[in-house]
Amino acid sequence: MKIIGFIASPRKEGNTAWVVNKILEGAKEHGSETQVRHSCKLDIKPCQGCLCCHSGDHDHECIINDDMQKLYDEIEHADAIVLGSPVYMGQMSAQAKIFTDRLFAQISPRFSPYFKENAAKKKLLLAFTQGNPDAGMFQAYFDYTKKMFQLLEFDVKEVVVVTGMRNGPAHERKDLHAAMKDIGSSLAAELLPQ
Questions:
Q1: Of all residues in the chain, what percent are helix, strand and coil, respectively (each to 5)?
Q2: DSSP assignment string, 89-133
Q3: How do residues 76-107 score in pLDDT, each as one tens digit?
Q4: CA end-to-end span of the chain, whole Å?
Q5: What is the pLDDT of residues 128-165, one digit of tens each?
Q6: 59 phi, psi to nearest 5 deg
Q7: What is the SS3 assignment for 36?
Q8: DSSP helix/strand/coil, 34
Q9: Are 156 and 150 within 8 A, CB to CB?
Q10: CA angle 30, 69, 85 (to 5 degrees)
């Protein structure tokens, strides 16, 4: 059981990083192998919309030579992904959007003209952190994002929203320690053979 966490935040040790790492800690304690990647340590360029990745010459290979190339193999061999993002301007960060767009090289959902039966169905957990204390303020966006990933044939297990970050760092909130680890444990339990 392998879970890869992608921290899509410009802050190396911010709230989103803490939340994703705590979720992975819970998963690891439940027997999963975990790995974390941080956008601020990677050079990932935006998708160019060239469609080379779905042409006959480059089947599912992105021609952009950047750090996303390392992530493709890791994602392919992972059983689940934890995508963590701060909420900026009411939606995921630019780093999360670039990462999501670049998944196009490996994704061929049923509605796509590039659909292939062997398209990988990955389990996905979305983790958002937001400064605003109102958990429902961006609910429409979270619902949209969940549906978008489901349309791309991800098995979205949960959308975690940690609120009130403007009132202090996540690691100082005692209620979050066990809660985030429990979320990771639950995700790891989903990966166990039935």
A1: 40, 20, 40
A2: TTEE-HHHHHHHHHGGGT---TTSTT--TT----EEEEEEE-SSS
A3: 899 999 999 999 999 999 999 999 999 988 88
A4: 13
A5: 999 999 999 999 999 999 999 998 889 999 999 999 99
A6: -50, 110
A7: strand
A8: strand
A9: yes
A10: 55
